[in-house]
Model the fold of this input.
Amino acid sequence: MISDAIETTQCQRKDPVDLFHSGHFVKICAPMVRYSKLAFRTLVRKYNCDLCYTPMIVAADFVRSLKARDSEFTTNEGDRPLIVQFAAKEPQILSDAARIVCPFADGIDLNCGCPQRWAMAEGYGACLINKPELVQDMVRHVRNQVENPRFSVSIKIRIHDDLKRTVDLCRKAEATGVSWITVHGRNVEERHQPVHYDAIKIIKQNVSIPIVANGDIKTLKDAENIHHMTEADGVMVARGLLANPAMFAGYEETPLKCIKDWVNIALEHGTPFTCFHHHLMYMMERITSKQEKRVFNVLSSTSAVLDYLSDHYGV
Done:
């Protein structure tokens, strides 16, 4: 579902690459399945988030099905700058998907980092880091077929055990016209192991385009430290923002004002109850006792949640 304000949206287009030349590191909301949807993007933008990604969308379904487009991609004129992330393995399909979203977004991102088994089995996600020529071909197709030169094309990757292969992939992507690269500093097998920030720094030193660091960033201080440690031009955060959507504004834990903002935004956007509730569970994780969680986490309606927040927090 796309906003009616097509002309306004197109007039407001900014080149997202300009963000990387603003004199400070770019603060980015990661693509998160089920979670980085319009309502949540609206919330984090109120708290100093510079750039937001949609959840990953399978490009083939998106191109083939109007129903998929309506359910997977919702935006409005305030939802900028916006990057739509696609899972794809065929150059023309990715290009077709990019052309569909081009009037309503500022760029697309090719997912080359998802380590989930289903994605890898389908030829999507992290298996693409082993197919640099295919990545180049997909980027080239989008570049050649999307007419707007300010429309960004980026990729999000994981690293190889042999970092030379990752550097080679990044250089090839850069040569084909990628706008920036987000590096999740773990390999495909790693989940909760420490992030290899040293690898992100080496990649940064070997390319000229902006590099975004991703992995285990929980506070603004973490973001600043990792920016300095890796020399990355931006930081991308997933779970840290789920737990505290006001993180980029310097809050150590979710302030009550942010919870109130979420309630208002979610109700305004008609956010389904499960999503509305899950976000609150994440946001209130650090500020509620075990006893409170036992009660709050099993509430089963919007009205019950609103009553609870009113009674306990005055929200």
User: Anything to note?
Assistant: The longest helix spans residues 132-145. The beta strands are 26-29, 51-53, 57-58, 82-87, 107-112, 152-158, 181-184, 211-214, 234-237.
